[in-house]
Amino acid sequence: MSKNNTNSLFSSFTPNLIEAGVDEVGRGCLAGPVVAAAVILPKKFTHPLLNDSKKLTENTRNLLKTEIENQAIAFAVAEVSNIEIDKINILKASFLAMHKALDKLLLKPELILVDGNRFVPYQFIPHQCIVKGDSKYFSIAAASVLAKCYRDDLMATFAKTYPNYGWEKNVGYPTLFHRKGIENHGVTPLHRLSFTLLKKEKILKKK
């Protein structure tokens, strides 16, 4: 386990194994997919700015996205739709998105580092769950950044089709503006109907 001198994050969990950091974003949103990324970084990779994506500005995330994609040994992003979320629940959908991202990696990892305290085993590869792992390990932080950049861009695109919910700013999270949009305009095909969209559940199903 090696630690970067200019940041509080660790470069690796083990000295020799090929490690893939995995993280998801969008679990608490009312609309859109849940998105996960998997990233394999060089063993001694460090970066003074890289951290949990929630702690970074949009500009910093976008700069880091380019650097991660250029320097990563392998990376992949995957999503699970709101329709699938409603079918299997958000926790299972989050794990599925992580598995899909791992499926897409061009290099098979020997260890999976997962942000959080739960994970469904992937194939027969060992995994390590790390609470707040996106602020402890560079590979998980990198996955966090890629997943968030991808999902934020996706929700901004969706906002052009459905402009009444503020997705270009709230990216689907349950802000007051978003809930007011649901109350006034009903739900869209991208809303998660298994979630509590309105506190009174007064949903107008308009398209």
Written overview of the protein:
This protein is an alpha/beta fold. The chain has a domain at 18-161: Ribonuclease H-like superfamily/Ribonuclease H (Nucleotidyltransferase, domain 5, 2-Layer Sandwich), CATH 3.30.420.10. Helices cover 36% and strands 17% of the residues. It has six helices and seven strands. It has helices spanning 58-71, 82-88, 90-104, 138-161, 167-170, 176-185, and strands at residues 2-3, 10-12, 19-25, 34-40, 74-80, 111-115, 127-130. The strands form two sheets. The protein has a five-stranded mixed sheet with strand order 5-4-3-6-7. A hairpin with an 8-residue loop joins strand 3 (19-25) and strand 4. The protein starts with a strand and ends in a 22-residue tail after the last helix. The model is unreliable at 202-207 (pLDDT under 50).
Question: In terms of topology, how is this protein built?
Answer:
Layout: E1 2-3, E2 10-12, E3 19-25, E4 34-40, H1 58-71, E5 74-80, H2 82-88, H3 90-104, E6 111-115, E7 127-130, H4 138-161, H5 167-170, H6 176-185
Parallel strand pairs: 3-6, 6-7
Antiparallel strand pairs: 1-2, 3-4, 4-5
Supply the CATH class of the domain at 18-161: Alpha Beta
Here the CATH topology of the domain at 18-161 equals: Nucleotidyltransferase, domain 5
The CATH superfamily of the domain at 18-161 bears the name: Ribonuclease H-like superfamily/Ribonuclease H
Task: Extract low-pLDDT stretches.
Answer: 202-207
Mean pLDDT: 93
Physical arrangement of strands within the biggest beta sheet: 5-4-3-6-7
Q: At CATH's second level, what is the architecture of the domain at 18-161? A: 2-Layer Sandwich
DSSP E strands, number: 7
Oligomer: single chain
Largest sheet, strands/sense/barrel: 5 strands, mixed
Categorize the overall geometry. Answer: globular
- Helices, by number, come to 6
Which H/E pattern describes the elements?
EEEEHEHHEEHHH
Which percent range describes the beta-strand content? Answer: 15-25%
